Give the backbone structure.
Amino acid sequence: MVTRHYLNKIDIMTLMSFYLTCVPDCTLIESKLPIFPEKNDIKSSNIFSQAEEGKIISNDDKSFKLNFPFLHDHATVKYLKDSKVMFIMRGLPGSGKSTIVRSIQSTYPISAVCSADDYFLKDGVYNFDPNKLGPAHETCRLRTEQHCQSGCPVVVIDNTNVKRWEMKEYLDLALRTNYVVVLVEPQTPWKFDARELARRNKHGLSEEILQYKVRLFQDFMPSYYGWFFNEADSRYFLRMGRKLVEECVDKIPELKQSLLAQFRRRQVYIPAHTDAKAIVNYFRRQNGNTLIHCTSKFLAHGRVPCAVDYHLRADVQGNCGKASCLTVTSIIITERTVGARVRLSKQQLQLFDKPEERERDELMAKAEESPSQEFASRGGASENMEGKPLRKQFAALELSSDDKSTMKINPFKLKNGKISKNGSADAKSINESESNMYKIVRSKPFNNHASLKPLCKRKEVKAQPNLHMMSASRFGRSAHITLATAEGIESRQTTFDILDICEVEAECPFEGRDSVPVLGGRAVYLGEGMCCIYLYKPLVFGSLFSGHY
């Protein structure tokens, strides 16, 4: 794959308004999941050493910091070199995009930079023709599509992308070809200073034109922020989840009966003798999207409370394009959703914001103090609610929220095919996500199944004797990956299903509860159509923090 070098660009919006300039295309990057290095192997986070990386350092490069994790974080760079990521550049001429693009090319030798300006370069001479803007951008789009279809790990779209519609085709292309998108804006202090931009840009744009473009520049929020798996691990995990659901439906009659009853309520008739595969087919991925993710905050493009505050947080913006590990502890199956529970690290918890958790905690606290008054004030029939589990009472309420509950460890051990309570907590196990930050883990039972061979090389750690269960009341307990949902069910339903399961785990000590051995762990039927597969040891996957636009 040949690396394309960054060329001079002109902004489309200005050209269309002033017939003077052309819009440079945004940056898109993608790569496959590499193995994270051991902590001892990371000698320095500075990957811009001229001797090691061959980076060209110019006077402009020294005038501001290239403070992006995909450029200076060693683990992130290794991850992206073996994933599929699309960097979409955003910024006005003279704001510093060229320096960032050159640094990306230097850091990722196997990359492709696509720009509409390439169309006007003939024999090394740039000759812009405003009448050919349409063909120029169509050529840029086609070239980008070719690189994405070929699986180029890093694709950069180098245009100004002042407004969202200018990058929509690239966002759609990334979704179709399973690329994680990272939007990149220069961090220079003059990026909206028209006078300084006029002095620095190489296209001869006047201060008046640039001032107009500054007014046009549009900040937009994603639908949500989260940690995204790459394509290889997404496909692996989806296959693994399907295999586990089939096994549970085969081995747990109560679960099968509950699912069939739910199908009948939804007027979907499936004969009782139907095999597990037909039942599992009832659960599907929404919109056919292959990449799976763990949501940190749902923003709805700014239409939910506190969305703007979260979007503008320095730690959120600073983590965009940064790789980290997600630790999966168990798989949940309900009548509505199939999901994986995730244990977040301390650093990841700082980015996690789920209002549903906080709302549930507040309602639980109020209901425990005076359940009759609380539910009567909300129009509920308190005499019918009393004595029922809190999750039953919550079913009558509309929930939405976030959480900060105290970590409460509730460990369990496997004994004679049953789950029994273990008296003490293993702090080492609780913090395993952080201690294994640079290890990609696969459970041996998974590797023994031919249909579930790992798609990438993985490091393994010695199997743990204890099942890994999520604490019933801790901040971040609803962190999850939605694997599939029943027809007509939204992905966010997984959050409520996991909160319900956490409540069941808090109510019942699991003593004497039957468990069934399944691939990589033990499955426990919790009643009411809920089943949880507790893994013998957690699975740790690489992920990339970014937004979904």
About this structure: Residues 307 and 342 are 23 Å apart (CA to CA). Residues 1-63, 374-388, 393-465 have pLDDT under 50 and may be disordered.
